[in-house]
């Protein structure tokens, strides 16, 4: 079962080859340290390799700084297999409430309590890309955090 799937990369019922998913697992490339890192940072777009659609092969604007625009294989997989850029770092998600509570104790106004007419020059505060509040003295908040 599991050993067969890891060894071959074919996941699903062995007797029903049509319903099995192929290429789910791969053997890690260990030729050099650089090739190992490149293999671990690879992303795969699940689109047929023989298709001539250009859109899935192109970089999206949201990939800026995250996906390397140059490192992709030649041939049918060109643009469908992408690599994370050199300085890209993927972190494990964490709860944002402790940092929001910390900043609230240091005079950050939560978005629900904010009145733009009362304090129009307040600086927006984002946590993990989400607008959570505003602060009247952003430099002080940055120094404390």
From TrEMBL:
Gene Ontology molecular function, alphabetical: DNA binding; DNA-directed RNA polymerase activity; ribonucleoside binding
GO cellular component entries: DNA-directed RNA polymerase complex
Keywords: DNA-directed RNA polymerase, Nucleotidyltransferase, Transcription, Transferase
Enzyme class: transferase
InterPro entries xrefs: DNA-dir_RNA_pol_su2, RNA_pol_Rpb2_3
Pfam families cross-referenced by the UniProt entry: RNA_pol_Rpb2_3
Biological processes, Gene Ontology terms: DNA-templated transcription
EC number(s) on file: 2.7.7.6
Domain RNA polymerase Rpb2, residue spans: 26-90
Record-stated family: Belongs to the RNA polymerase beta chain family.
Matching PANTHER family: DNA-DIRECTED RNA POLYMERASE I SUBUNIT 2 (PTHR20856)
Name under which the protein is recorded: DNA-directed RNA polymerase
Organism: Curvularia hawaiiensis
């Amino acid at each position: 079962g599991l050993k067969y799937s890891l060894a071959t990369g074919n996941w699903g019922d062995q007797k029903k080859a049509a319903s099995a998913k192929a290429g789910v697992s791969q053997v890690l490339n260990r030729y050099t340290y650089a090739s190992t890192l490149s293999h671990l940072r690879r992303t795969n777009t699940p689109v047929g390799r023989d298709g001539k659609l250009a859109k899935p092969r192109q970089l999206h604007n949201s990939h800026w700084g995250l996906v390397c625009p140059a490192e992709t294989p030649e041939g049918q997989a060109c643009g469908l297999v992408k690599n994370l850029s050199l300085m890209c770092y993927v972190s494990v998600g964490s709860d944002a409430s402790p940092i929001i509570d910390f900043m609230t104790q240091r005079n950050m106004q939560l978005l629900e309590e904010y009145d733009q007419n009362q304090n129009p020059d307040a600086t927006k505060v984002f946590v993990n890309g989400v607008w959570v509040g505003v602060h009247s003295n952003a430099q002080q908040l940055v120094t404390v955090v």
